[in-house]
Automatic annotation (TrEMBL):
Alphabetized PANTHER family for the sequence: DIMETHYLANILINE MONOOXYGENASE
GO MF annotation, one: flavin adenine dinucleotide binding
Family as reported in the entry's similarity comment: Belongs to the FMO family.
Name this polypeptide is given: FAD/NAD(P)-binding domain-containing protein
Annotated segments matching region Disordered: 65-92
Organism: Clonostachys rhizophaga
Keywords, ordered alphabetically: FAD, Flavoprotein, NADP, Oxidoreductase
Domain FAD/NAD(P)-binding: 14-274
Entry's transmembrane regions: none
């Protein structure tokens, strides 16, 4: 039997957290409450906290060329030969823009999308009836909540600073950091005993490699964009629009666009994983199969169903995001270094949280589901407990067995590896809670899934289904995936 990687681990005193969004806030709080660390730093590449919930009203929209692998879309930057150093500001796209658009809301009730140690309603006293949506809080309110969470440990924050390289050597993580101002980049190094990646998964857009797309973008500049850069329906009024995708974001965009566009066509490879028949028979929507090619001469779009082409005024790719950690080198993350593996999951993790070979590297926020905030909190708690020496992980072969069984559960579809739909999400939360029950000492005090949460969660699901069924008449916008 292979021994646990933790058996040879040195005491952890200095911890770096990468990302100051919701998962970064949970990680910082859990580490703080563990009362076991001398240094905790939270590095954030933006100038403010909030992560994917920040609103950039007028982002620079890149050309929507195919982005099929982060090794090309999000390559690592080469640091200067000697550090510290000051260089001209890098012009490389780092995908810093957040995907928030006007009237964005959550997709779950505030009773579910909250942290235990500071409840959403204890921060935001705005009655739901006064918000633009009676059930789901707006992105602005979520951002305010995340900002309040980070204010509890603002002394940990290092803003405008991007992690460009993380190398493990001599039991330390050596981080190469780039601090940006208006004209220059300041490069420097810091060392830590552990690294917690809480960057989220909504940075690098995934745009399929559709024949003709590259030339189409040159013939019709600005006509195609990824949903990350959608901000409002204003620019789409009275236009014919093609939405590519059938996930939650696509459904939200469809619901937003229907009242204002002249024609709406939706192209997707398979039914929505959340609402399998939601587009069948919906008036006002032309549902087509997979987008097969584009004609850069006249702008026609052709589909796998063999039906007539469609010539839209605009194309929106609601096709998701890559999992990308350009600062990590093999064996810690191979996606950004030419791996043939799909770029939609992180291989070699245990419980979507710990790197199997070296659990001083952990991830908070990889799991995608509708109870994400609570899952982040429980992930952060077990990470803090482990790094504090209060939680033992199983031997390596058992962690590898977990990954193998998880892949089998999703029929080896790596795109679904980190998805945990209800009720699996509840089972996973309780699995994390069971680990916490094995620990003693200071730390976040969390409960197993509470019975009173279930009807609130179900009510949110049913309400969103109802809104999908009423796409023709309901005009309330949607959610970040």
């Amino acid at each position: 039997m292979l021994e646990s990687p933790a058996l040879n681990m040195s005491p952890i005193r200095r911890v770096a957290v990468i990302g100051a969004g919701p998962s970064g806030a949970a990680a910082a709080e859990a580490l703080k409450q563990a009362q076991a660390f001398d240094v905790i730093r939270v590095f954030e590449r933006r100038g403010e906290v909030g992560g994917a919930w920040n609103f950039d009203p007028a982002p620079n929209v890149p050309i929507a060329d195919p982005l099929v692998h982060p090794s090309a879309a999000d390559p690592p930057l080469q640091p200067p030969a000697e550090l510290p150093a000051t260089t001209p500001k890098s012009s490389t796209e780092r995908w810093i823009t957040a995907p928030v658009y006007e009237n964005l809301t959550t997709n779950v009730n505030v009773e579910i999308m909250t942290y235990t140690y500071l409840h959403f309603t204890d921060v935001d006293k705005t009655p739901l009836a006064e918000d633009h949506d009676p059930m789901f809080p707006s992105a602005a309110r979520v951002l305010n909540y995340i900002q309040t969470l980070h204010n509890r440990h603002s002394d940990y924050l290092v803003l405008n600073t991007t992690l460009e390289r993380a190398v493990k050597q001599d039991n330390e993580w050596h981080l190469t950091l780039r601090q940006a101002d208006n004209e220059t980049d300041y490069w420097y190094e810091e060392s830590f005993d552990a690294l917690v990646v809480a960057t989220g998964i909504y940075s690098v857009p995934r745009i399929p490699d559709i024949p003709g797309l590259h030339d189409y973008n040159r013939s019709f500049p600005g006509r195609a964009l990824h949903s990350k850069y959608f901000r409002s329906v204003e620019g789409f009024k009275a236009q014919s629009v093609l939405v590519v995708g059938n996930g939650i974001t696509a459904l939200d965009l469809i619901r937003d666009l229907m009242p204002v566009v002249s024609k709406l066509t939706v192209a997707h490879r398979s039914p929505s994983w959340m609402y399998p028949t939601s587009l069948v028979g919906v008036p006002g929507i032309s549902a087509r199969s997979q987008l097969q090619r584009l004609d850069p001469e006249n702008g026609d779009c052709f589909f796998a169903d063999g039906g007539p082409p469609f010539r839209p005024d605009a194309i929106i790719f609601a096709t998701g995001y890559h999992v990308s950690f350009p600062f990590l080198s093999p064996p810690y993350a191979s996606h950004n270094h030419g791996s043939s593996l799909a770029a939609d999951w992180v291989p070699g993790t245990y419980l979507h949280t710990f790197h199997q070979q070296d659990p001083t590297l952990s991830f908070v926020g990889l799991v995608q589901n509708s109870v994400s905030f609570r899952i982040f909190e429980y992930q952060a708690a077990i990470v803090a407990a482990f790094l504090a020496g209060r939680l033992k992980l199983p031997v390596l072969e058992e962690m590898q067995r977990w990954e193998k069984e998880r892949l089998e559960e999703v029929n080896n579809n790596s795109a679904l590896f980190h998805y945990n739909k209800y009720p699996n999400s509840v089972e996973f939360l309780n699995q994390l809670h069971a680990l916490l029950q094995q620990t003693t000492g200071p730390g976040l005090q969390l409960h197993s899934w509470q019975d009173e949460w279930t009807p609130k969660y179900i009510a949110g699901i049913e309400e969103r289904k109802r809104r999908v069924e009423n796409l023709k008449t309901l005009h309330i916008t949607g959610t970040v995936l």
